[in-house]
Every structure is written in C-alpha cells, then in structure tokens.
Model the fold of this input.
Amino acid sequence: MDMGERKKKILSSVVTEYIVSAEPVGSRNIANKYNLGLSSATIRNEMADLEDMGYLEQPHTSAGRVPSDKGYRMYVNELMNDYELSVRDIKVIKSMMELRLNQLDKLITNAAKVLSELTNYTAVFTAPEFKKGAIKTIELVPIDESSMLIILVTNEGIMKNKRVMLPKSVTPEFITKFSNLLKEKLSGLTIEEISVGKIQEIKQAMQTNFEILFPVLDFITDIIDDVNKETEVYLSGTTNIFNYPEYSDIGRAREFLELLDNKPVIKKAISGNNERRQGKKNAISIKIGGENELDALKNKSIITADYYIGERAVGKLGVIGPTRMDYAKAVKRIERISAYMNKILAELYQNNKGD
Amino acid sequence: MDMGERKKKILSSVVTEYIVSAEPVGSRNIANKYNLGLSSATIRNEMADLEDMGYLEQPHTSAGRVPSDKGYRMYVNELMNDYELSVRDIKVIKSMMELRLNQLDKLITNAAKVLSELTNYTAVFTAPEFKKGAIKTIELVPIDESSMLIILVTNEGIMKNKRVMLPKSVTPEFITKFSNLLKEKLSGLTIEEISVGKIQEIKQAMQTNFEILFPVLDFITDIIDDVNKETEVYLSGTTNIFNYPEYSDIGRAREFLELLDNKPVIKKAISGNNERRQGKKNAISIKIGGENELDALKNKSIITADYYIGERAVGKLGVIGPTRMDYAKAVKRIERISAYMNKILAELYQNNKGD
DNA sequence: ATTAGCACTCAAAAGAGGTGAGTGCTAACA
DNA sequence: TGTTAGCACTCACCTCTTTTGAGTGCTAAT
Done:
C-alpha cells in the first residue's frame, strides 16, 4: 500500500487536529473541520489504512486515532506547513536582543526564558563548550594570602575563571612569573590538547614551587569534565509541562521533572544530532519519541539547534515537550532565537576572532 | 480549659502519628499504639477538648483529627523529643566535609544536596550576602581589546567577579592605574556604603576616560540588586515533594514547583526570622504554615538556620516541606550541616579576617 | 473520672446503568 | 471501482446508588 496524496492530507489533518486537541481524532471530526470533500466513511477507511501502515494508532477500539512516532516523523518531514512567526513572537525575541546582556550566563538565561515563554515548552540551553576553544590568554591574579584567581580566555572570546587555594604561600612576583610561563606554553592549544608532556615541560621550566601547578591542573580537569557540571545546562519553563494533559498524571509529571533535574542526562539527550540539513549551519535537529535513546524520553520530543561563535558550533538550544508538540511553531521560534544568539555573540566576541 | 500533662501527651501522640501516617488520626489508633493507659473514649473526649482549644482540626465529622498550625507550634515548642542523628546521617554529613570543596558555589550545591537527600524535603540555601562585607581588594584585569574583569574581595574573603565590556579602548596601563585608584578609594567600605559622593570623588581624581566608570557602577548595582539574582538561591531536591501524599494532587504539586521556580520569592520567604533562641548564634527558625507571610506558603513549613563567616551571619540554609514535617529530624540535620558549613568556611576564609 | 456501648455521620470504594463518540462492515450507488 | 449511507457494535466515561468502615458524640454504668 502506498501513500497517496489523499492519505497525506488526512494524516496531516489528524496530526494538526491532535496537536491542538490532545484527544484521539475521529473520522467525523476530520470530515467536518477539514474540507477534504470526503465523507467520514471514506476517511474512516483511509485512517484504517494509515493505521495498518503504522502512521496512526488507536488507544482502544472505540476511540479515534492518534499519530504514532512514525506519523509525526512523516508530518515533520513532508507535511507540515511553514509557520509564520507572529508579530508578538518577533517583538518579544527582538526585545531580548535589545537587553544587550554582555554576560554569557545572563544572555543564555534570558534567551532560555524567552524561548520557554513563547513555546510553552521547557527550554534547554548548553553553555558554550569551552574545552574545544584555543587558549588565547591565561592569567593568574593573587586574591589574598591563600588564594589566586585563574582566568582563561579562548580565541573565541569566551572566558572562564576559578578561584583556587594556593598550596603554599608564594609571592605575587612568583605568581606573575608563573602566569607568563603558562601563557607562553599554553597559548594556541585547546584545553583538550594540553598533554602530560606539556605539563612536564612547564614543570621543567619552573625552578621552584611546583605545587602551584596542582590547582591549575584541577581547573583544567574541571573544564574537561564539564559534561558533569550542573552549571553547563540551563533550563527554563520546567513547570510548563503542567499545561499539557499528557502530564496531568502525577506519575508522568514526576518522571519528567526528575529527568529535568538530572542535568548530565539532559545534556547527553540534546547533544546527539538528527538533522534535516545535516552538517549545515543553522540545521535543526528533531527527535521524536522513540527516536530518542533514553527510555525516559521515548514519549517526548526534543528540537534543538546549534549556536555559533564564529564558525564553531559552541552550544545547543532547544525545547523538550510531549511528542504532541507544535513542531512547526517550535522550529521557527528556535530558528529565530538561535539566529539572534549568533548575532549577539558575534557582536560580543567576534572581534577576538583569529588573533 | 487548660493544657494538662495528659492533653500534652495526647497531642504529642497525634502529631507524631500524623507525621508518619499522613492520615487523620483516630482515638482508637492512639489508644492502641501509644500506651497512655487510657481508653479510646477518654482520648476521644480529650481530643474534642484539644479541638476546641485549637490544637487539632477535623477534616469532616466522621474523620480522625489532624494537627492545626497551633498544634504543630505547641509540638515544636514544648513536646517534641530531641532526635539523635543516626550513624548514617553523621557519616553522610561528614563525608561532605571531606570533599574539601573550596569553591563557594560547589560547597553550597553539595551541602544542599546532602540536606535534601537526608531530609527528603527541598533544601534551600542562599549565597553569602556580599554587599554587607567590607571591600578588601578591588582588581581590574584586562581580558582582551574590549573587555576587562572586575574582581572584588571582601574582608571575609568572599570573592565576586564579572567580565565587563569596555566602553572605549583603553591601555592596560590605564586600567592598572584606574584599578589602584578604586582600591584606594573603596577599600574598607561595604558595597552598600558606596555613595554617589564617593563616585564623584573618584571621577574627580581621574583625568580622562570617565566612561570606564560605568561598567564598574553596573557591577556594583548588580551586587546590590542580588535579591533578584537567580544565582543567589540554591535549591536541591525540588522533586522530593512527590514523595508526600499532600502533593499527590497535581494542582498542589504544580503550585509548589512554580513557587520554587520563583527565586526572589523563595529568598524573601526564608530571610525572615522566627527564632527560638533569638539573635543567638546557631539559632534555628521555624515557620509553620500560616505563620508564613506568603499565601503560597500557608500550607508549608520552613526551617532555616544562618551560616557564618567569622561573626557575621552571611547566608541561610534550610528546608521547605509540608506542615506535616518531621520537625525534630529536620532541625537536627540542619543544625549539623550548618555547623559543618561554618567550620569549612572558617577554614577557607577565616585567615582573611580582620586584616 | 473513666469507660463500654451504641446510634450516627460521611468519605471513599464498588457496582450498575446510561450515554455518546467512534469504529468496522455491508450493501447500494455513481 | 471508488465512495458513501446505514447500522450494529465497542468501550471509556459519567452519574447515580449502595455498601462499607473508620471514626465520632453522647449516655449510662462502673
């Protein structure tokens, strides 16, 4: 059995209807609301075919039909219409741009808030992946007798810093000297590229106070392990799920919220790719229900996009919601917000590029 | 009618029973489980008295009784026994100490996690209130052509930093000069004490490039407004509420989780005091149901303690949960964890004290 | 003053129709 | 041959009723 134009139209109607109603869709309903020029009986027959083909499912015999993951996939790939952003959407996203937040975490927090408010789903953002950026500057600043601040800046202009305790008391002069040594030895490398050999080399070059290397190494390890760092994942609108009937069951709501609490898992869940325009810039990845690896996500969909600093995709943003998601709207909003993110980040950091 | 020993025993039994069962407590139940040497009929009479006096409430005529806020208050003030921390409690808390986290946010995140896991309630921590600490050092470090890092350290050793964009390009030498000027003018003041006059004074002392003052002022404003900063409140165990039958209703669960999402409100909610040992160090504050100002908290209880750096109470930690809370256990665990926090913070920062 | 006993209350669980949206199938029709 | 009207059938869900049982208040006896 093949998928004629008519079946496509009916499938599209069922998905569209189900996305707004959240109720199994019946043939009569489609016949009345969508002017397909067909009687309910014909639609009934076609829907039976669509069920056989795996695009629709029936919760029980006397209920209407619900799209399957395969049905949503077909809808997303071939059937859905482009959504035109509303004036309000455009305005809200634009005003986010105008806040001119020049702190990365604030920028992300704010963008996530905007995305979750516009879509009514849970927005997920990852912070720029720091470890793949080449080191431009490394700076050590004494804070007090027992601690100093390590500051790292990449070529892309992203900065990270951490206060570390000094293993023993050293003079500010020594710290400056050490700082210069690090800068000389590590500039141009990415964090990931720093090898044991490199560390040995630095150690050789130092005459004394090797201990001061340990907190620096700790910091580097910290950055490499950032998958496990809670601060690397930003969520907004976690309670939005309560707006959807699929989560009116307390068990499901709990499951979802506990999932969201587990940042490393979330990070993993959104880092895979499933792109329509594979590899291209501004590609959107959509994972529907069972297409997700994780069991807890088998009944959820995730839409993500990359955001860029220069040519490098440094982080992800997107939404998590029920498979019954308004894919068309969500995609457009994510596209627009990621475009703005790129623009803002370019303005903030681009001037550092390539030097 | 006054509150005899017998009434107290019965009230205590009802509260104890209700804390574990979450079901309205009947007279027969008490007569059987608690060896008070009284028949259910007698207990029934006493419970009727306790209801008249406002310590107990009846959901409906044919149900058992439930403690009122006043009942819990009496229990907390006079009736409850000291809970002895279990070996596991002590071990878990101790192992938290042994992690030697020397980054404040990590320390707090971890302590919150421990508290929420031990109590099974939602743990709330506030970051140390920075604006009341006297400035010890202020440092400006150039990051790249268009930005610099402002680093502030208080007498207590707490540090904050922020990357700010330079309004116009300035030389590193100028930044150093400006840095020294700020240090000279602002040392010893608390953030709150920095006045417009002071700013004018700094401006007078500068010959050029006044614009560089603006990002510094932004930073200071940021710190003063920290009530509104999401990062200043740490939560852990937000999904713990799903363990309690009072939140098996989706509406209530939602209400609670939306409340927790609103950090400024949470901060306000825990910052009031209601202490048993007013003003004394290590005092525990307990707010039961209606004793809370906020409507959303009228059916919840909050237990908090202060934590200290030196002599100053810099932040709060505690739990939020249903009024049917195991007060005795929660109090002990909070006490122990705050004691550890104090110890760790003393070791980390105390050496800065007073210089 | 305490308690056994009993009538009474009422939420919650269990059962019993009834309703209606929706289906699949058949036979008639264009 | 594809489409549709018609009809019997299914089944979740709603409502109404009944049953159950934990718990109470009151009274009379100890």
